[in-house]
Amino acid sequence: MTIHIYGLLDPRNGVVRYVGQCENLKTRYTLHLSQAMRGDKPQSAWIRKLAPEKPVLVHLESVEQKRLRLPGSCRSVRLSSIIEAKWLKRFRRTVLNLNKRQCNAYDEFVNSPELQTRYGLSQ
Predict the structure, then answer these.
(1) What percentage of the chain reaches a pLDDT higher than 90?
(2) Mean pLDDT of the 73-90 span
(3) Full-model pTM
(4) What's the total number of domains in the chain?
(5) Backbone φ, ψ for residue 49 (5° rounding)
């Protein structure tokens, strides 16, 4: 199964305000717009403030869904979450949904040369 990592940009200035992952970009974008009308998350409030404009959806990366073991641990994490965290960290100054735990898992991977090579996770 292919997972798409995407961003929602502010149409007024082109700044990335949200990074997410999904299987179907069109369906997820429509869901963001409908949830914004009644949602209480920061990204919902932001989308409402844009009216009558809408956020711009941009495809950032696609990845095959699989689980990876964290180094020195029994825990595993989805590869798509690691790739999403890469983009969250890249846009950390502007995104509304920065997930620190997810970003820490990403750091565990990129700080491991073995895993960086095995999974092609270059910074």
Answers:
(1) 46
(2) 83
(3) 0.81
(4) 1
(5) -65, -25
Q: How far apart are the first and last CA of the chain?
A: 24
Domain limits for position 39: 2-119
CA distance 57 to 111: 30
**Spatial separation of the C-alpha atoms in residues 93 and 37, rounded to whole Å:** 25
Q: How many residues does the chain have?
A: 123
CATH of the domain at 75: 3.40.1440
DSSP run (H or E) holding 25: helix 25-36
Kindly report, residue by residue over 41-78, the tens digit of the pLDDT. Answer: 889 999 999 999 999 999 999 999 888 776 666 777 78
- Tell me which residue has tokens 């970003």: 103
Helix or strand holding residue 63 (H, E):
strand 56-64
Alpha carbon of residue 23 to chain centroid: 13
Q: What residue ranges in the chain does DSSP mark as E strands?
A: 2-9, 16-22, 56-64, 67-69, 76-78
Q: Sorting pLDDT into bands at 50, 70 and 90, what band is 79? A: confident
